[in-house]
Design brief:
By secondary structure, the protein is of the alpha/beta class. The protein is built from 14 helices and 8 strands. The chain folds into 2 domains: 27-159, 3-Layer(aba) Sandwich (Rossmann fold); 171-354, Dehydroquinate synthase-like - alpha domain (Dehydroquinate synthase-like, alpha domain). The protein has helices at residues 4-7, 31-37, 52-62, 79-91, 103-116, 169-187, 194-216, 221-240, 245-257, 261-276, 281-290, 295-305, 322-331, 342-354, and strands spanning 20-23, 43-46, 66-70, 96-101, 120-124, 135-140, 143-148, 156-159. The strands form 2 sheets. The chain has a 6-stranded parallel sheet with strand order 1-8-5-4-2-3, sandwiched between helices. The structure holds nicotinamide-adenine-dinucleotide (NAD). Residues 48, 50-51, 75-76, 101-105, 107, 125-126, 128-130, 133, 135-137, 163-164, 166-167, 175, 238, 261-262 line the site of nicotinamide-adenine-dinucleotide (NAD).
Length: 359
């Protein structure tokens, strides 16, 4: 007899991310081939000012395939920077972009593609995961808006772990927690599906294994490869299913209190995981098992072991800000496995502010 208890599954829709992923040490040398593969003949190479030298070296290696370098990418994709980059794209006769960097640079490439449809080749150098999502957050006059569109998803992503060997350890850890946060929320997402959950779990496992090794030896190539692999999986989950309380809290804190992106994710994640632990117990069980059965507490302990920040008060948030933060976080209703209750959110934020272990 058919065991319906085991075979019956709730229905789901899974859309496979169509991006081309090129993974492995030394794959930076494949950029020219990938530009040509997209029909590109002149690539505008993008970076932040901090990574300008690397972008220039890449443009030099591309030779005639490079239209130029635009190295003014900034956090939160300010529209005024995008306008300047669009002018550079036209002036240099570019027909595609190569974004070399983390979420800020990738955001600029997405903003260009959203406006002119240019193919994007991304060389990802952090663990934030933006390179595999069709999501773009932009800021104009201090207001951040988010758009989701097929034109925003980069066509090609190159993951070369060699480029992350010098990613500073504190950034590696917080960027890795940012990635884990996508996966934790993906596990209990309202529109979760078995494939996204497999990727989420494997992503968490890979990062949990790699991050302590990176702290012990930042130039460990295997650990760097493991972390980049995990961040690809976690980013893919972010691009595939919906997020909930954790991302809402981080966007509120980042947008209204100017708290730094990756550090805020790192501090909030143990608390948001603990908040949802009971309501999403089944969905989170395999991830909790990786942390001895207590996901929130385990993530908090891991952050401590890795020397990561654990208190919002260390980033300028005042205790007096907590009421407004809680009000903003519950202002517009959104789905979460556990109802989003103002007083419980205020208590969550108070613990995260003070640096206390989640309850
Ligand atoms: P980032 O891109 O802002 O990079 C931070 C700094 O580190 C920059 O100066 C950068 O040049 C430098 N850097 C990057 N890689 C380096 C490396 N390998 N070695 C040395 N320095 C390096 O940081 P991020 O955390 O990758 O991105 C954060 C931004 O991305 C935020 O604006 C966030 O909103 C956005 N984001 C968007 C999505 C999405 O799906 N749209 C997803 C995640 C993050």
């Amino acid at each position: 007899m058919l065991d319906t208890a085991r075979t019956a599954r709730p229905g789901f829709t899974h859309v496979t991310n169509p991006a081309r992923i090129v993974f492995g040490p030394g794959t930076l040398s494949r950029v020219a081939e990938e530009v040509a593969g997209q029909g590109g003949t002149r690539a505008l190479v993008l970076s932040t000012p901090h990574q300008k030298a690397d972008a220039e070296a890449l443009a030099a290696a591309l030779g005639e395939l490079a239209a130029g370098v635009f190295a003014e990418a900034a956090m939160h994709t300010p529209v005024e920077v995008t306008v300047k980059a669009m002018a550079a794209f036209t002036a240099t006769g570019a027909d595609c972009v190569v974004a070399f960097g983390g979420g800020s640079t990738i955001g600029l490439g997405k903003a260009i593609a959203y406006r002119n449809g240019a193919p994007q080749i991304v060389v990802a150098t952090t663990y934030a995961g933006s390179e595999v999502t069709p999501i773009l957050g932009q800021t104009e006059d201090g207001v951040k808006t988010t758009v989701r569109d097929a034109s925003i998803l980069p066509e090609v992503v190159i993951y070369d772990p060699d480029l992350t060997l010098g990613l500073p350890v504190p950034m590696s850890v917080t960027s890795g927690f940012n990635a884990i946060a996508h996966a934790v929320e993906g596990l209990y997402a309202q529109d979760r599906n078995p494939v996204a959950s497999l990727m989420a779990l494997e992503g968490i496992r890979a990062l949990k294994e790699a991050l302590p090794r990176i702290v012990a030896g930042p130039r460990d190539p295997e650990a760097r490869g493991g972390a980049l692999y995990g961040s690809w999986l976690c980013g893919t989950v972010l691009g595939t299913v919906g997020m909930a309380l954790h991302h809402k809290l981080c966007h509120t804190l980042g947008g209204s209190f100017d708290l730094p992106h990756a550090e805020t994710h790192t501090i909030i994640l143990p608390h948001s995981a603990a908040y949802n632990a009971g309501a999403a117990a089944d969905a989170l069980a395999p991830a909790a098992a990786l942390f001895g059965g207590d996901l929130g507490g385990g993530l908090w302990d891991l952050a401590g072991e890795l020397g990561a920040p654990r208190a919002l008060k260390d980033f300028g948030l005042k205790e007096a800000d907590l009421d407004r933060a809680a009000d903003l976080a519950v202002k517009n209703p959104y789905w979460n496995p556990r109802p989003v209750e103002r007083d419980a959110i205020r208590a969550l934020l108070r613990r995260a502010w003070a640096g206390q272990r989640p309850e």
